[in-house]
Design brief:
Largest sheet: 8 strands, antiparallel
Shape: globular
Radius of gyration: 25 Å
Number of helices: 20
Oligomer: single chain
Bound molecules: 6-O-phosphono-alpha-D-glucopyranose
Helix content: 25-40%
Number of strands: 27
Length: 614
């Protein structure tokens, strides 16, 4: 949620900042802004509502010179998306500019106090309070910007990654973080900062992940300095980025979403590489081996996640229960954290998060830690907060996911959960080795199965034309296919804005069946699994009410093809692997429907990829 970027050095800061904002636009695109100190010493702040391209247009005839600057792309929390509420925010005397990702929870109290002291505010944001407070402290205590930021942050409750510049010090940015991500790139006579490494990667591979409660002094002339709120210097731990620029580009596809859908044969291969070995006979998940005792003795596993990751987690529940015979609960992190959960040291909590930065998921794992539970993380972004705050974990290794609607991360999460379940089952002896080997051998073929499934692209594109103007969709599935139905419905609604509901197929008769008529398409996920005969009945029930059925079935299906209106046939795989395969046609269907409707699939309205606020 919101992206920040900063630069100090000899180059033109504006160009670097704008490019960086484009990379971070997945984090929010309600407004964008930039603050630059010009060579003549003016602090110029330019902002525009809407996407970064609006800001670029606005800046065309402005002075965008200067070797230091900060910039922001916003996902609105406090105050509507408008020029006025866009960042950077100025201090009242226009000496300081600040950008912020996060939420200042006690902003009201601070704002009232500042107003009483004569401060005047320009915006409705929580962020402006921070810049006014810093300026108030700086002028009243006659202290440096670093000291003022430190003191202000001591008074702040909430989450933040901030970057602050002042007119009279055009060689230094002060940045800080608590609960929102912040990376610093170290170049030669220049430094970069950003919410993630994507704006930095083409300039340097040397990065420092700022930790909670650290303040960074980012200067072009001096080495990076980190201090905590007690003014103690902390160590600077430089890491090498494993990210390439080509991973951040569309590679000939019209949208990141389509590119990411088509990348899945490769990303799934990356995900299983080194983990499914000896021709599928052995599964090695190092995080599980490191946590052997914990998983062997777990009385319960609780999986916490949000959004698409929550759907992957539901599949994880079926996998772990089936294979390991350990009770599993799946919780929305946002509910779990406020539900006063009963936890102890025999619980294992697994946090699933593509970004590794989702605020609710982070809070949930903090709570689990405090209660003595063992915490395991499944993330995509290397070095993000969740892997750094868990006892052990596994990366899904699917590469940067830029389309806001998650696709390759979902299948990567499901794959990793499958491997984790298999590794635990092996440790606990809850599954015959020959069954595990059969699945292991099939997992090695998954990239090919996915490739084959992607050949349905044109069929699905044609099918999408029939359903583009439907107002409502129902998605049904049972067992492993139930979370796939939820995910299919979510994909459609988030990018095409068509109302869609995912439901366990048998529950349809307790409500949604009332909605079915000739106008309402139902997508039924019905691979050849142990519930196949049951779901045939559900298809009949929809047809009996003149509903139109699109069915995802296994190649060679005999029954449903005779009843459904449209059939999409996918390769035959073991039941536990069906979600990875059946979700792919649903990703394509939602993509094409949204494209037919002229929607921006990579940046759907109101959404953001990384949700770092509550
Ligand atoms: C947002 C994104 C979703 C994602 C969810 C959870 O809503 O748009 O794609 O599934 O956050 O994010 P996480 O990074 O924790 O998986």
């Amino acid at each position: 949620m919101c992206g920040i970027v900063g630069y100090v050095g000899e180059r033109n800061a504006y160009d670097i900042l704008i490019k960086g904002l484009h990379r971070l636009e997945y984090r929010g695109y309600d407004s964008a802004g930039v603050a630059l100190v010009s060579p003549s010493g003016t602090l110029n702040v330019y902002k525009a509502a809407g996407k970064v391209s609006n800001l670029e247009n606005y800046c065309k005839d402005k002075d965008t010179t200067g070797g230091i600057g900060i910039a922001h792309t916003r996902w609105a929390t406090h105050g509507e998306p408008s020029d006025r509420n866009a960042h950077p925010h100025f201090s009242e005397d226009e000496e300081i500019a600040l950008v912020h990702n996060g939420t200042i929870e006690n902003y009201k109290v601070l704002k009232d106090a500042l107003i009483q002291n004569g401060c005047k505010f320009q915006s409705e944001t929580d962020t402006e309070v921070l810049v006014q407070l810093i300026e108030y402290i700086r002028t009243h205590n006659d202290c440096t910007l670093l000291e003022a930021v430190k003191e202000a942050l001591r008074q702040v409750v909430g989450a933040y990654a901030i970057a602050v510049i002042e007119k009279n010090r055009p060689d230094t940015i002060i940045a800080a973080r608590k609960s929102s991500p912040l990376v610093i790139g170290i170049g030669d006579g220049e430094m970069f900062l950003a919410s993630d490494a994507t704006p930095i990667v083409e300039y340097t591979k040397d990065v420092v992940y700022v930790k909670d409660n650290e303040i960074a002094v980012v200067s072009k002339t001096r080495p990076l300095k980190l201090v905590n709120l007690n003014n103690e210097e902390t160590s600077v731990d430089v890491k090498t980025l494993e990210l390439s620029i080509s991973q951040l580009e569309k590679g000939g596809y019209p949208h990141f979403m389509l590119k990411e859908i088509f990348e899945q044969p490769t990303t799934l291969l990356d995900c299983i590489r080194g983990r499914v070995v000896n021709e599928g006979k052995d599964i090695i998940v190092s995080g599980v081996l490191d946590s052997k005792e914990k998983f062997m003795n777990a009385k319960r596993i609780i999986i916490v996640a949000c959004g698409t990751s929550w759907h992957a987690s539901l599949i994880g529940k079926y996998l772990i229960q089936d294979m390991c015979r350990i009770p599993v609960e799946v919780e929305y992190a946002s509910e779990f954290r406020y539900s006063n959960p009963v936890l102890d040291d025999r619980d294992v909590v697994i946090a699933v998060s593509q970004s590794g930065e989702t605020a609710d998921t982070l809070a949930a794992i903090q709570m689990a830690h405090d209660a003595g539970a063992y915490v395991y993380g499944i993330s995509n972004v290397v070095g993000s907060s969740i892997p750094r705050n868990t006892d052990s974990g596994t990366y899904i290794h699917v590469g940067p996911e830029i389309g806001v609607a998650s696709t390759k991360a979902f299948t990567g999460q499901v794959m990793v959960l499958t491997l984790i379940a298999m590794a635990i089952a092996e440790l606990k002896g809850t599954m015959p080795k020959e069954d595990l080997i059969k699945i292991g051998e099939e997992i090695l073929k998954v990239p090919d199965y996915v490739r084959q499934t992607l050949e349905l692209n044109e069929q699905i594109e044609r099918l999408s034309l029939i359903f583009t103007y439907a107002h409502n969709f129902l998605y049904l599935g049972r067992g492993y296919s139930y979370p796939v139905a939820l995910e299919g419905a979510l994909k459609l609604k988030e990018i095409s804005y068509i109302h869609a509901e995912g439901y366990p197929a048998a529950e349809m008769k307790h409500g949604p069946i009332a909605l079915i008529d000739a106008e309402m398409p139902t997508v039924i996920i019905a691979p050849n699994d142990h519930l196949y005969e049951k779901i045939v009945n559900n298809v009949q029930q929809v047809k009996a009410r003149h509903g139109s059925v699109i069915a995802i079935v296994t190649e060679g299906d005999k029954e449903i093809r005779n009843i459904a209106d449209h059939v999409i046939e996918v390769p035959d795989v073991p039941e536990c692997l069906t979600p990875i395969i059946t979700s792919i046609p649903l990703q394509l269907l939602s993509y094409y429907i949204a494209i037919n409707k002229g929607k921006n699939v990579d940046m759907p309205r109101n959404l953001a990829k990384s949700v770092t606020v509550e």
